[in-house]
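Entry for the shared binder. Reason: the reviewer on the internal report wants the predicted structure included alongside the sequence.
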Amino acid sequence: MNTKVFLFLVGTLMMTLQTTNAQRSIRIGYIDMDYILENVPEFQEASKQLDDKVNRWKGEIESKIGSVDAMKKQLENERPLLTAELIEERNEEITFEEDQILDYQQKRFGPGGDLAIQKRQLVEPVQDQVFNAVQEISANKKYDYVMNKSEVLMLYAADRHDISDQVLRSITRSSKRKQINGKKDEDAFDRDESKTVEEDQATLERQRQIEAKKSEREAALEERASTRATEKEERQKAFEERRQRLLEERQRKKDSLAAIRLAKSEIKTSKEKPAGDNAKPADARVTALEARKRRKDSILNARKVRRDSILNARKNRNAPPVPDNEEGGGQ
């Protein structure tokens, strides 16, 4: 609302007030439309769904822009290899895609786009409920004027003239009236209906205090759980460190015992080894094998000589005796 229209309305209102002030007192109230919308659950849920749509539309536009940027970059890289006709064709394709993006942006976010239409469709039902509630409250409370604080520039407004909670209460009751399914729900609705605005505000304040205490209790429980988890982690860490130290100490003892056994074994071996024998174990083994071979060869030679001797003896014993005439020759 521009300044001229506002001044005109204010002037008209002042003239009306001055005219009727002599007859009776004037009752003026106002509502805060933004406050009412923020406290209507159906409006908040629909707003969340609309926000999800807007984010999806923005993502689609960013994706299209990214594709066009990739096309431009590819054209710049391939420009030296393309003919003038191909370059012009690529530029026309890029221009076409950019025009498509602009059209899509206008379709979604333009003055008459989907976002404006769906916002209007979202707000209109609540506005109708607010209008009906204002009419009912104004008739019952005998208000002469009720203004919307969100649209009219108000330099000062006393809280006692704010009927936003009454309007919100009326909208909430209308919603609850539609959800009555039995006698129990009807009795609960009647009890709520009999409450005054002050009682509703007191109930709301008690609920807020309960929620605040609940939040404090949950925060304390979370802090306690976090502290316990931290202490558990520290205990586990200390246990792992102690366990690692014990394992390392045990390993050191094993290594020390193994070193002692090895040293004792070496000392024992050095004592059993003949003095002055500096030959290596492998050389000693070879020497023993050679000595064994010599003894074996000696035994075999001895056996062969004995066998040959026996055979010669047997041969001499079995030979026939030589006659005497043959021994004398021609005598």
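Summary line for the report: Residues 3-194 form one domain.
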